[in-house]
Design brief:
344 residues, alpha+beta, BirA Bifunctional Protein, domain 2, binds 3,4-dihydroxyphenylalanine
């Protein structure tokens, strides 16, 4: 009897190891544990025919075999359920399919494209510069020498010297204005350019992100005036917000322009004052001004002959105003419930 127990156990282990699917496991269950003709059932029947003494001796071996068969089969079945599909989750071919929605470009990319389109229409060239800048281009050439207090407004990420860039004093650009200097250095007037790109500041709240995007504009030629600046800003803002509006310039200070200004648009949400314009009827847009003679001197232009205007804009800011978004962080969370609202 013990020999048969051994044989059945070995055969069972072999069969179980070879069983690769649900059907094979079911067949093993019938073959060994089946109520009518299962091998274990046969053994139990034979056990009953033995004399009480022999029965006691073989009973334990048969019982151990029974436990082994049941436990191993259950484990194998559980493993299979885990690896194939969850219990009860059989394939139902009558269910409707899950549609693959086509992707769209990010709302910031879309607004960036629109801004580029508007300036290209106006005859501007697209320029770019590196995101890792030198202190010279980011600050110094823009009339911000090392101890200039205006540096305080642009808290900066500096890079430690590294074997790949051993120069000390490299930083993540805090604005796109260094592209003004790079463009003025590489060409001569007339200059008419915009640069769109990523900038970095140590700044974070509902309207500020440490990584954001700016537009820089620069026009330099003989006879460029403040009126050209105002007309350009007005035309651009009307185009980008797709409505009639007016521009308001307020005197302000940026070291690389003189006179310098901040410019606002008449509120695009109300006529008499609302929470978005804080009751003032105007919304801040960016900084601008006439290129400072000190900047012209740095790049070797004659400030008596040439004049120019420059302006800066935040791309997120335009996107937020255009779409009525209050929290800048929504742009960076990759939440499809938000991103799905901007079909391209
Ligand atoms: N670079 C400035 C900033 O990020 C914005 C700015 C102000 C740009 C005046 C200009 C300008 O070109 O003329 O705060």
């Amino acid at each position: 009897m013990e020999t048969r127990v051994q044989e059945i156990r070995r055969a069972f282990d072999r069969d179980l190891a070879a069983a690769s699917d649900k059907e094979a496991l079911a067949a093993i269950r019938v073959r060994y544990l089946g109520r009518r003709a299962g091998l274990l059932t046969g053994l139990l029947k034979d056990l009953r025919e033995l004399s009480p003494q022999k029965r006691a001796a073989s009973g334990k071996a048969v019982n151990d075999l029974k436990t082994h068969l049941e436990r191993s089969l259950e484990e194998a079945e559980a493993r299979r359920r885990g690896s194939e599909d969850a219990p009860g989750e059989e394939l139902d071919p009558t269910l409707p399919g899950r549609a693959q929605r086509p992707g769209t470009s990010h709302p910031i990319t879309q607004v960036r494209g629109l801004i580029e389109e508007i300036f290209l229409e106006m005859g501007y060239a697209l320029e770019s510069g590196p995101e890792i800048e030198t202190d010279y281009y980011n600050f110094e050439a823009l009339n911000m020498p090392p101890h200039h207090p205006a540096r305080d407004m642009q808290d900066t990420f500096y890079l430690k010297p590294h074997p790949f860039h051993p120069k000390a004093g490299l930083l993540l650009r805090t604005h796109t204005s260094p592209v003004q200097i790079r463009t003025l250095e590489k060409q001569r007037p007339p200059v008419k350019m915009v640069a769109l790109g990523t900038v970095f500041r140590r700044d974070s709240d509902v309207t500020h992100s440490p990584v954001f995007h700016q537009v820089e504009g620069l026009v330099v030629d003989e006879g460029i005036t403040f009126a050209h600046l105002k007309g350009t800003l007005e035309h651009f803002c009307r185009r980008v917000f797709e409505r009639d509006l007016t521009i308001r310039l307020r005197p302000s200070y940026f070291p690389f322009v003189e006179p310098g200004a901040e410019y606002d648009i008449s509120c695009i949400f109300c006529t008499g004052g609302c929470s978005r314009c804080k009751g003032s009827g105007f919304i801040e847009m960016g900084g601008a001004g006439m290129v400072h003679p000190a900047v012209f001197e740095k790049v070797g232009y004659d400030p008596e002959r040439y004049s120019g205007f420059a302006f800066g804009l935040g791309i997120e800011r335009i996107a937020m105003l255009k779409h009525g978004i209050d929290d800048i962080r929504l742009f960076y969370e990759n939440d499809l419930r938000f991103l799905g609202q901007f079909p391209a």
